[in-house]
C-alpha cells in the first residue's frame, strides 16, 4: 500500500485530503509546513508528496527544492496542490523545481485520485519523466521565487483592496440606514471604558437628548429609565441578561415626559466570556401602550356589563319561579313554563 505525505498548514484541508486518500486505499502521513514535511520524509520516505504552496516556516516551493536537492528524496514524486498560486508562471516554476504535477483547486475527487494513481504507476514502472535538475543557480532560483511571491503579494493586496471597498460600502449602507432610522440605535461599551460609542440621530426625537449628550454622559442610559423600572433593568442584566427577549421600560425624557420604550439588545462578549458591550435598538411604543390600555379598559367594561347582564337574567328567573310557586299555592297552573316542567312534556314558553 502506497504511503502519501500531505503537507498543508490548514487542519481542515489535511482532514479532507486524509479522508479522501484513506478511502482510496492509501496510507497517509501529515505535516503542517515544509520543515515538518522534510523531517517526516527523511524518517519515513513516502511514496508520494502532496504539498500546498503558501505555508509558514517553509513554503511548498522551498520544500520541493530541498527534496530535489536531497539524494534520498529526489526520486519521490512531488505534487503541488494549491488554490492560491494559480498563475501559469507559478506552475512553470514548480515544474522547473522538479514537480511531477501541478494541481489547482478545486478539482473533482475522482479526477484528483486518477492523477495521483497515474503518477504513482508511472513512477513504479520507471516511466515517470525524471525530474529536471533543480535550479542550482541561486540568483535564477531566487529571481523566479521572488517573482512568484510578488505576484501573490499583489493578488493579496488586490483582494484586500476589494474586501476593504466592500466593507466600506457595507458600512456606508448601514450608516445610511441607521442615520435615517426612526428607532434609537446604540452601542454601549462596558470595557475598557463605560459609555456610548454610537447613538443615531433618532435619540434626539425620542429622548430629547442629542447623541453628543449621550457620548458625554456614560450614565445617561440609566438616568433615562424611570426609577420604578430600574430594578427591572438590573434584573435583566443579572446572569448575563435575557438578551433573546425584548425588555419594555419607561423612560423619562429630557422635558420630563414619560414614554414607553421596547429594547432589543445583542450582547458582545470577549474571548473570556465577559460582557463588554451591547448593541441595541430602542423603539418608542407609547402610542401602542395607550392603545393596549384603552383596549384593556374596554374589555374590563365589557366584562362588567356581561356580569351585570347575567345577574339580571338570574333575578328574572328567580321572580318567575316565585310567581309559579304562588300560583301553585293558589291551586293554579304555572304561568312561566320556561322555569317549570309543563304537562305532556311542555317545557318552554309562557302562558
- CATH class call of the largest domain: Alpha Beta
> How many beta-strand elements?
10
Which regions are unreliable across 5 or more consecutive residues at pLDDT < 50?
A: 342-351
Task: Give the helix level as a range of percent.
Answer: 40-55%
What is the fold named in CATH at topology level of the largest domain? Answer: Rossmann fold
Q: How confident is the prediction overall: mean pLDDT?
A: 85
Distance between the termini: 108 Å
**Secondary-structure-derived class:** alpha/beta
What is the topology?
Layout: E1 3-7, H1 11-23, E2 27-31, H2 34-44, E3 48-51, H3 60-69, E4 78-82, H4 88-96, E5 101-104, H5 109-124, H6 138-180, E6 184-189, E7 195-199, H7 202-207, H8 211-216, H9 220-224, H10 230-237, E8 247-252, E9 258-269, E10 275-284, H11 286-329
Parallel strand pairs: 1-2, 1-3, 3-4, 4-5
Antiparallel strand pairs: 6-7, 6-10, 8-9, 9-10
Helix pairs in contact: 2-3
Core attributes:
5-stranded antiparallel beta sheet; 351 residues; 5-stranded parallel beta sheet; disordered C terminus; alpha/beta; Beta-Lactamase; single chain; 3 domains; Rossmann fold
Write up what this structure looks like.
With 351 residues, the protein is of the alpha/beta class. It has three domains: 3-155, Rossmann fold, CATH 3.40.50; 183-284, Beta-Lactamase; 291-345. The protein has helices spanning 11-23, 34-44, 60-69, 88-96, 109-124, 138-180, 202-207, 211-216, 220-224, 230-237, 286-329, and strands at 3-7, 27-31, 48-51, 78-82, 101-104, 184-189, 195-199, 247-252, 258-269, 275-284. The strands form two sheets. Strands 2-1-3-4-5 form a five-stranded parallel sheet, sandwiched between helices. Strands 7-6-10-9-8 form a five-stranded antiparallel sheet, sandwiched between helices. The longest helix is centred in the C-terminal third of the chain and has 44 residues, at 286-329.
Amino acid at each position: 500500500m502506497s504511503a502519501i505525505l500531505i503537507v498543508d498548514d490548514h487542519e481542515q484541508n489535511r482532514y479532507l485530503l486524509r479522508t479522501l486518500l484513506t478511502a482510496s486505499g492509501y496510507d497517509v502521513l501529515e505535516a503542517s509546513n515544509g520543515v515538518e514535511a522534510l523531517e517526516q520524509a527523511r524518517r519515513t520516505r513516502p511514496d508520494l508528496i502532496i504539498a500546498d504552496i503558501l505555508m509558514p516556516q517553509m513554503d511548498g516551493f522551498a520544500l520541493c527544492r530541498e527534496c530535489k536537492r536531497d539524494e534520498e528524496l529526489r526520486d519521490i514524486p512531488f505534487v503541488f496542490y494549491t488554490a492560491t498560486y494559480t498563475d501559469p508562471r507559478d506552475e512553470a516554476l514548480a515544474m522547473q523545481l522538479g514537480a511531477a504535477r501541478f494541481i489547482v483547486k478545486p478539482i473533482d475527487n475522482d479526477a484528483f485520485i486518477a492523477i495521483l494513481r497515474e503518477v504513482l504507476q508511472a513512477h513504479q514502472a520507471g516511466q515517470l519523466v525524471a525530474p529536471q535538475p533543480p535550479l542550482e543557480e541561486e540568483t535564477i532560483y531566487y529571481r523566479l521565487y521572488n517573482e512568484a511571491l510578488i505576484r501573490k503579494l499583489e493578488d493579496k493586496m488586490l483582494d484586500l483592496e476589494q474586501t476593504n471597498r466592500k466593507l466600506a460600502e457595507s458600512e456606508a449602507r448601514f450608516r445610511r440606514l441607521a442615520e435615517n432610522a426612526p428607532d434609537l440605535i446604540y452601542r454601549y461599551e462596558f470595557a475598557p471604558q463605560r459609555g456610548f460609542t454610537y447613538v443615531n440621530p433618532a435619540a434626539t426625537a425620542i429622548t430629547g437628548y442629542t447623541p453628543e449628550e449621550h457620548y458625554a454622559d456614560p450614565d445617561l442610559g440609566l438616568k433615562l429609565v424611570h426609577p420604578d423600572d430600574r430594578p427591572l433593568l438590573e434584573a435583566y442584566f443579572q446572569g448575563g441578561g435575557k438578551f433573546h427577549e425584548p425588555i419594555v421600560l419607561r423612560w423619562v425624557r429630557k422635558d420630563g415626559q414619560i414614554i414607553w420604550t421596547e429594547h432589543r439588545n445583542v450582547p458582545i462578549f470577549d474571548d473570556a466570556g465577559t460582557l463588554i458591550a451591547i448593541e441595541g435598538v430602542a423603539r418608542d411604543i407609547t402610542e401602542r401602550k395607550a392603545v393596549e390600555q384603552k383596549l384593556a379598559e374596554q374589555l374590563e367594561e365589557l366584562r362588567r356589563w356581561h356580569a351585570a347582564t347575567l345577574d339580571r337574567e338570574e333575578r328574572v328567573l328567580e321572580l318567575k319561579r316565585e310567581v309559579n310557586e304562588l300560583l301553585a299555592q293558589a291551586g293554579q297552573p304555572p304561568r312561566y313554563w320556561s322555569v317549570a316542567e309543563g304537562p305532556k312534556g311542555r317545557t318552554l314558553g309562557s302562558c
